[in-house]
Fold:
Amino acid sequence: MSNYTTTLPVTLDQALAPAWLTGALAPETGGAPVTAVEIVEVIRTVATKVRFTAACEAVPGGKLALCLKGFLDAGPQTMRGGATTVLEADFYSLLAPRLAIRRPPCVASIIDREAPLGIVIMRDLIAAGARFCSALEPFSADETAESLAQLARLHAASGLLPELPWVKPRLADFVRNQYVPQPVLQEMMSGPRGAGLCARTRDAGMLLQALAALAERNAAWPPFLIHGDCHAGNIYRMAEGPGLIDWQILQRGSWALDVAYHINAVLPVEVAEHEERRLLGHYLETMRGLGADIPDMETAWADYRMALVYGYYLWSITRRVEPAITHLFTQRLGHAVMRHGSFGLLGV
Structure:
């Protein structure tokens, strides 16, 4: 796999140009020319993901099935977040090979650190038989236990953190930068995404206060290597089990941020309410089996209940995802915050 600095393409046409791909894929192809490219699918959210095939005589079968991810044909607002693409490219080249987790095989990670921008080129998981999950297809409790086990493997590698100064805390940044101003957030929460939630939970000012209080707690809790955005859309399934994608907000923080977010994002409200304590116990036992230093159940339960604010905030501010998905995740996580009195536990 390559990881080098160069000027990156910023349009889809540039990224799929055979000449550029010939250089990007050289570690895989030995520098043999890419002679043709065929687009299979283009998915545009914040980043663009394009599935394609690259014809090259030097590889078995003469063709590679790949998926390229980067900021392509993006506006100025999106491009200001280019550092997240560098973080993901660094994850695949510098960290992923050291982790015992299931993730997409990466062929190349290419970075322009001055821009800053990164592009990753991965094997096309769908072509390899993978199925990507969705908020609109809720998990079962057993499926959630499987994906929690993958998160546990990530968290258990937290001994690597002293070697990873580029993996930083993010929660305090969310508080400091306030990506969505409070009046705008209140307008969003007063709309369909907040339907069915109590007035206190829909109050943008209280949410921001709770996030700030959680950031203070998070700074005092032992740090773990965490995914940071482990909702259903960032999980895929293969015959051998689930895997994790989308490492753009990889960070150091409490394990509880990932676990509370994941359980309540992927499960329907009534299933989460019935199963969450058992699933938390499963996660803790998995972590102990991996040799990790993890709290007892009652301490972990208290941390879990407060940490729910993190995932709820992320989906409260989300604007560039299909509304049906945004609303469903906000509802699930908002109901968890209500159920556990998370604001009150944080002193709000």
